[in-house]
Write a structure and sequence with these properties.
binds magnesium ion, binds guanosine-5'-diphosphate, Adenylosuccinate Synthetase, subunit A, domain 2, 445 residues, 2 domains, 20 strands, 4-stranded mixed sheet, single chain, disordered N terminus, binds 6-O-phosphoryl inosine monophosphate, Adenylosuccinate Synthetase, Chain A, domain 3
């Protein structure tokens, strides 16, 4: 184990720009990790996805779930930014702001910045998302139904409404009129569903624009200023590597690039500005929605992981599919994101299991392969080749240093580190902020 140092909370390092991304199918515990290290950063930035994300933090015994607000928002003096690559449902964002304000956490315009170029999720996006899924029947993707795909489609086809379009009524009126003609034709005549009302939508979204206008800013410019002032910046990924639209298990993916490479386009900075990329790895695997999952457990053990890990979607409440850790996937995530290090979460969930399995290769058509095959049909045929390790029974939630962990827990971590080939920076042993073992400070010294 390449344990370097034990850092103390609040210790300040010289400037760095760090990316935190998911290495599996989302829900790796990114929210907890971002909140945890936020006391060392000046800005937390979302760069893709939308309110399909559900990031959970547990602070002072209270659970917070954020869908759009960056997970650093509970830290005072933190600037939270929502980049142009994010798709924003304004009603959801306003609700999150108001919920926090009710709890006494003020979200002033100098604490929250929203890109004027972020695309807006409109009612027809949600209607189309759900109508399409219903039409697909058993072949459905299992989307979150939040309108994410249709919104990114409009962005790519240049029919999108962006945040700054909400600020000028006549402008919004013209855009919306043209777009609604097409969308309502689809909804009514192809999907046989209800049309979206023009006047009501115009008024509603103009009001959202007014409510959010003070937060609207030029994120790329702001980030440039932060970088020049040697401030610490953290980019918070949503979803995970295998939900990436290009490199994930297409078509069972989301509609954005979830990889670290998309930070540059989704926030407006150059690749050379990112100092470190850190991947969050859940100690086992989960997935919500459809698509292949070679290490999925269809037995009692799968149900046990779901209950022990509370594996129900933070956004839709759907039960998550559960299975063993898949190192073949983590290695691919390492390559695709250029990971410098990893963070292992939910290790405590494995406590009490007699033995643990890690997939180290796949068997397909009588051959052993060591990388995720690029085509879905081949991936669906893969059966995992497992390495089996002994489990542990000791409660690890109160442990705060690596050396205090049971020997078998250390062995599990060391095996992961050796197989993946990058160091483990942090180990999470419970949902709360403090239930954490920090092995290495990944902010530049
Ligand atoms: P995200 O989307 O990657 O931010 O992850 P989610 O918040 O959707 O799902 C992770 C869940 O696991 C949340 O309920 C967290 O509170 C919880 N969690 C995070 N880290 C740990 C951990 O180390 N142990 C346990 N038991 N739960 C954790
Ligand atoms: P966080 O950020 C887990 C999944 C959906 C579906 C697919 C496409 O909390 O890790 P979409 O609504 O994006 O078009 O759905 O992607 N999905 C997630 N699964 N965690 C997420 O986000 C997800 N966001 C989308 O379940 O399979
Ligand atoms: Mg989540």
């Amino acid at each position: 184990m390449r344990v370097k140092s034990q850092i103390k909370g609040g210790e300040r390092a010289k400037m760095s720009v760090v990316a935190i991304v998911g290495t599996q199918w989302g829900d790796e515990g990114k929210g907890k990790v971002v909140d945890l290290v936020s006391d060392r950063v000046d800005a937390v930035v979302r760069f893709q996805g939308g309110n399909n994300a559900g990031h959970t933090l547990v602070v002072n015994g209270k659970k917070h779930i954020f869908h759009l607000l960056p997970s650093g928002i509970l830290h005072e003096n933190m600037t939270c930014m929502i980049g142009n690559g994010v798709v924003i449902d304004p009603a959801v964002l306003i609700k999150e702001i108001e919920r926090l304000e009710k709890e006494g956490i003020k979200i002033t315009p100098d604490r929250l910045k929203i890109s004027q170029h972020a695309h807006v999720i409109m009612p027809y996006h949600k209607a189309l998302d759900n109508a399409r899924e219903a039409k697909k029947g058993s072949k459905k993707i299992g989307t979150t139904g939040r309108g994410i795909g249709p919104c990114y489609e409009d962005k790519a086809s240049r029919n999108g409404i962006r945040i700054h379009d909400l600020l000028k009524k006549e402008h919004l009126e013209t855009k919306l009129k043209n777009i609604l003609d097409e969308k309502n034709f689809m909804l009514q005549h192809y999907f046989k569903s209800e049309p979206i009302q023009f006047e009501q939508t115009l008024e509603e979204y103009f009001q959202y624009g007014k409510r959010l206008s003070d937060y609207v800013d030029n994120i790329s410019l702001l980030l440039d200023e932060f970088i020049k002032q040697d401030k610490n910046i953290m980019f918070e990924g949503a979803q995970g590597t295998f939900l990436d639209i290009d490199h994930g298990t297409y078509p069972y993916v989301t509609s954005s690039n979830t990889l670290a490479g998309n930070i540059c386009c989704g926030a407006g900075i150059g690749p050379g500005k990112i100092d470190k990329v850190v991947g969050v790895v859940k100690a086992y695997s989960t997935r919500v929605g459809g698509g292949p999952f070679p290490t999925e457990l269809h037995d009692e053990l799968g149900l046990h992981l779901r209950e022990a890990g509370g594996e129900y979607g933070s956004t839709t409440g759907r039960p998550r599919r559960c299975g063993w850790l898949d190192i073949v996937m983590i290695k691919k995530a390492c390559r695709l994101n250029g990971l410098d290090g990893i963070i292992i979460t939910k290790l405590d969930v494995l406590t009490g299991l007699k033995e643990l399995k890690i997939s180290i290769a796949y068997r397909v058509n009588g051959q052993e392969i060591y990388d995720v095959p690029p085509d879905l049909e081949a991936f669906e045929q893969c059966t995992p080749v497992y390495k089996t390790l002994p489990g542990w029974n000791e409660d690890i939630r109160n442990i705060r240093t690596f050396s205090e962990l049971p020997e078998n827990t250390k062995l599990y971590l060391k095996t992961i580190e050796e197989l993946v080939g990058v160091p483990i920076y942090i180990v999470s042993v419970g949902p709360a902020r403090e239930e954490t073992i920090i092995l290495e400070n990944f902010f530049k010294q």
